[in-house]
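This part of the workshop introduces the protein records we will be handling. Getting from the letters to the tokens is the skill we practise here. An example says more than a description, so a record of this kind follows:
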Amino acid sequence: MNEVFDTHAHLDQVEDLEACLDLARKAGVVGVIAVGTEASSNEKTLRIAERFKGFVHPALGLHPCDIVGFDSARIAQELKFIEDNIGIACAVGEIGLDYHKRTLADVPKALQSEVLGEVLSLAKRHRKPVLVHSRYAWTDAFRLVADAGMPIAVFHWFTGFAGVLRGIMDAGYYVSATPAVEYHEEHRRAVRAVSSERLLLETDTPVWYGRAERYRSSPLDVLRSLRAVAELRDEHEDTVAAYTTRGARLVLGEGVSPDIEEVE
């Protein structure tokens, strides 16, 4: 059984969490990074991580789609919660930029960039990796992360330009693959091109996937990410599992265990 790691899941939005994680664990999932999006989500994520300690790793975030109507006082309050609890977080995320027209109607680019800059500064002060949302904002998100001098960043569900992807790899950052690798051409193009040492797996649970047949994801579906990546890149599943799990361990700062060395 392959050991796989789900590096991006919104566990605070999952209903039957214990059953969901039990299924994933029995199928070979060895860890999940649970991401928060604002204070109440972050608080719930911390409680979940405490309940499933060692298996669920909490990340505290401030998602661009979740700051609608926030004034400077509320943003400061959100940042304070993250900083006050940063010691028990494995990373800062989900953070980033979202240039979808629906988001921009409520949260202008300038505000998104300002908030991202502040949370990146916080993450750098505390030497935490960042998990970055960059929908239609790939160039600006990468520029802000790189300019902030972040040592470790993961661009989750990346669908952006080849030039930005090269910049991500040159900077030593990561890209994570979702089950959308099965059908989403832009995501497939990125996952095919990224180097093995810069690729991770994720589910973005509980997002809905599929075209002909729709399903709501759970951490168990990181195995779908694994199978789709292996098929796309013409690699053995054991090999993909080994290098993506190795990458996840490195992001978490756990080093690499002898039993997850890359398979030749």
The radius of gyration is 17 Å. Residues 24 and 220 are 4 Å apart (CA to CA). Confidence is low (pLDDT under 50) at residues 256-264.
